[in-house]
Every structure is written in structure tokens, then in C-alpha cells.
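User: Show me an example of a complex going from sequences to C-alpha cells.

Assistant: Sure. Here are the input components:
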Amino acid sequence: MSSGSPDSVVDTVVLRYFLLVDEIELLVELLGSPLGVPRIVFDPEEDEDVPASARSEIRRSVAYQQAASRDPARDEEARATALRNATRLAGVTELHAAGRIVTLDLTDAELATVGRLTSPTGCAAFGLTFPLDAGEAACVAMAVARSLPLATDDGDALRALHVIAPRHPYERIRKLLMRAATDGRVTRRQANEIHDEMRRLGFWDTHAPFPGEAPG
Amino acid sequence: MPLGERLVRARSNTGLGQDDVANALGVSRTLVGYWESGARTPNDRQLAALSRLLRTPISVLVGTDEPEPEPDVAAMMLRGADQDLPAEALPGLREFAEFLERYSALATAAKFRVRGMHESPFVSTAGFESADDARRKAEEVRAYLRVGLGPIGDVDAVCELLGVTVYRASLGSDLAKTVSGAFLKHPHIGFSILVNLDMTSGRRRFTVAHELAHALFHSDVPYLVSTAAKSPRERFADAFAGEFLMPTEGVRRVMEEQGFGPRIEDPSEVIHLQRFFGVSYVTALVRLRQAKFLTQARLDAFKLVRPVLLARSLGYEISDEEYSPRPDRWRLERFPQRFRRLLRLAVRQGVLSVPSAAALTQLSIDEVTELVSAEVTAAAPLAEERTELEEFTASGVLGVA
């Protein structure tokens, strides 16, 4: 059940990487509590035995990392990293229980927007060559309809957002880390270190928040 | 039309039953019935999962779009088969047709050259389609590939070298009734092969070779669906695949080298040959009988052998997919290597984002992230690999052409 009124809508990518580097509290501080996430991204009510392909995106990530932690084809270090990733991602359940994350359900109007953004033919109207992932589409639709800032690092989602609502506020991971340093929540070096750790875990943004400031 | 009716229509199009949907989503069949009757509504996560499972856009399920009026290639393939096929084959055929369309669109967007084969370099003439012709043509293809008489290591790599795309999907496990593979000519991607994942690894390998025969010698038709029914073309493709994977002269050579024969007398010899050529035990038996290295009496006796147990007792390493297919394990591996390279390239070039790539392939964000950032996350070489490299360096072989 949803509780509280969120100050932002957060996509899987942003939520995933802040969880993976164990800096989810920093994300909550930056965006305000609670964080709003679509049920496609995180569904606290889904059963444990739901098949992987039907899980919410964060739970799918947890399952993947758990499987990777048992994969004999990976070396010991990779398995340990996967286990740590799974544990950190699973922390989303506690955050929800503590009321720091709320799950949002789509309204009919938002669902119609999601339908267009995920349609192979309809997505072209939003400047997209390929349809958006359903979780990203839900984030865009909800952020616009509810006038909430969107936290995403999906270039395609941002492209669609600019078409739907050109001036709509949004946050990217790098921008969030820069703000964290400006607000004095972390040092510039720490911001770079967090970004660097995300990069090691697969995050694709190659530009550090503070290029002149080498990570420790 | 209400959501429930749209769900029924989408489910019927895929050939899935309410039980299949319930199992895939981890809900009860009763709940699926409620969704379809309109008594209840799936939540957003379940709706997204239904969209993926039923291969129907959310916009169609919620009624903001009508289904695409494009020709349903998968349904045509199903109808065009030599025998009545179970509806359970339809989702896999549809997945194959959709994959080729997406591959084509992504290659165009990323300006990627697919290098698909559109015309066979081999001659195919009516009247030359006997089993002997098939075996002769298998020799020609082997000569073209310069693989001699030895085993074909990676049959997918051979297809890629030839420009033939290989995709894998679940098509059902009752092989007497369903599809083992299919060949389709795609206007952009070129000759493409589908292989049923619900088969043992040996049978999948044979199917790739069988479909390759269709690609190289039967491309006068737009598609062919391979089933248990044996038309002359299917028999040709079987004979080709057997000779291609296990050439008679190559078998004879190995038998001489290993001290077998001239007649095979012991099933362990079949196991050795089967392992050497990388075919299933049954394929090896059939090939040895065709080449007259095995009498009918021996064939009948050897059929009763449990080959995996025998192979294990002979010291061979056994993969569990040799006797128990696990199609659920095939995620990224379902896609041809060239497509995986394209996906990496497209994400790195910003043609599409990681979440969009996940949506396009129905993979998870984690899987796509690993694929795209493999260099970033790759661990340092293991100590053993470092030592090996140091040994090569010390020996001076590096830098010598």
C-alpha cells in the first residue's frame, strides 16, 4: 500500500545505483522523503515465488545478483560482489517498511501515456526510435501528471520527457552528486568516489561530477 | 473493448492457456480468470509482465492502440508446416519473427552492417535431392569452410561465418508434435535459423545443421518449418546434417586411429565417436548405421544403452543440458553473437539506453548492464592466466608471426 506523498519519482536506474553503492540515504536526503517509485519498479506486495520475468525491476535485479553470487563461472571476487549487490538491493524492502519509499500506482491517464511510450509505433511521436521500458515510461508519465521532479539516468526517458513537458524538472545521478557536494552533504572527492564506484558496477556515465577532483 | 477481453484475445493469439499465464506470472489460474472476466484488474507490475508474456504492447492491452495489421509471419509459418502443430509453438515462432524485425531496426538505427547471407553460394537443382546428394553437398560445404574431416567445433560460429543468423526459443518439448527448428529468409537480416530450446544440447546442434541445409539449398521458399513429418526436403536436411557434423570419411579415420572396427562392436566406441564429433548418441548411432559401421542387430542392442551414464563412467564431463534441457537458463545466449555485439555498440553509441535495450530484448537491466559494461567490470586476470601469459612472453613467441 502506498503511504505518504512523495516529492519525486525515481526510476530503476537511479534507485538501483544508489542502493548498490549503499548511499540510498543520500538519495533520500537529496530528493526528500519518501521517494516515489512505480509498482513496475518496486512492488512490495509481490510474492517471493513470483517468476523472475514477472517481478518488479528491483526485485528482478535482486534475483539476478543472487543467481550471479552462486554462478560457478564467476570467480570468487565476482560472486562476493554479486552477493553484496543482492543484499544492498534487497534493502529496498526495509526502506519501504520505514516509509522512505512509496509505491505509486498508475492512473488511467498515466497508463495511457505509458501505453504510447512503450508502443513500437507510438513511441516515435516522442522522438524515440525504440519503445521505452515500462518502468521508465511509468516514471515519466507519473512525474509529468503529478508535477513531481523525475530522477532518471535513462537518455531515452529524458528524450521523451523533453517532448511531453520540455521544462519539466529532472535529476540525473551526476547532477545529484554535484548537488550533494554543493550542499555540503559530501565532499567533491566523495562525490567522485561514489560516481566511480557506480561506474565499477556498470553505470554508463563516463563523466565524473568534478573532473578536476580525482577520486581517492 | 474492456481490458479483460483484450487479455483473452492476446492470450489466444499466443496459444497460451490460462494455466500458462498463471504459472508465468506466479498467480493462480482463478485470478487470471478474474482478470479476463473483468472481475479484477491486474496491477501495473502484472500488466507489464502480461505485455511481455503475451508479446502485446501495453497500449493494445489497455485499448489505446489496435493490434498491428502487419502480416503475422509466425502464424503463416505455423500453418505452412507439414503437420498440424501445437499452439505452444506459436509464441516461439512469433518471438523469432519479432527478434528479426528488432534486429533489423536496431542495425539500421546504429548503421551496423549485418552481413547476412541473401543468396546461397551453393548450387541446388531439382532432382538432386537424394540422401547421397545431401551427403555430397555436406562435403562441399565442409570444403568451402575448409574444416577438413574433423569435428565442427562451434556450429553457431560456422553459421555466423556464412552470414546465417541463429536464434533460439522455446517451441515445446513434445518433439513428435512440435517444431524442432525453422528457416526464414528475412529481407534485411538474410537467412535466419530458429532452434527449439526445449531439446537436448546434441539435438539442438543437429537442428542448427539441419536448418543450415535449408538455408543453403532450399532458399527458393520464404520459410520452412521442421517437424517430425519428413518431406523429401526434410530428409535431405537430415542427411546433410548427419554428414556435416559426422562425416563418413572422418569417422572412418577416427575409427582406424582409435583401433575400432571395421565394425563397431561396443557401445563405448559409439560414445567416443559421439563425443569426438559433438553429436547426440542417437545421431551417432544413425550415422554409424548409415555408413554400415554398425549392424542392425548392434544398433538395436545399443539403443538400450543409457549414453549419459556410460559417457560419465568413461570419464567424459557431462553437462546437464545433455539429458535435461533448461530453456529458462538461456537468456543472453539465445541471441546470435553478432546481435550481442550490435546491442553493445548501440548502447555505447547512445542509439538506445540500457533500460530500452532491456525492453527490446526482454532481458533484465542487470543482464544488459553486464553485456555493455563487460570491460568495466571485468576482473583482473586470474593468477593462472597471468602465469600462462608470462610463460609465453618469456618464450619469445609473442611478436613472432
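The lines above are the inputs; the final block is the predicted structure for all two components together. The first strand of chain B starts at residue 165 and ends at 169.
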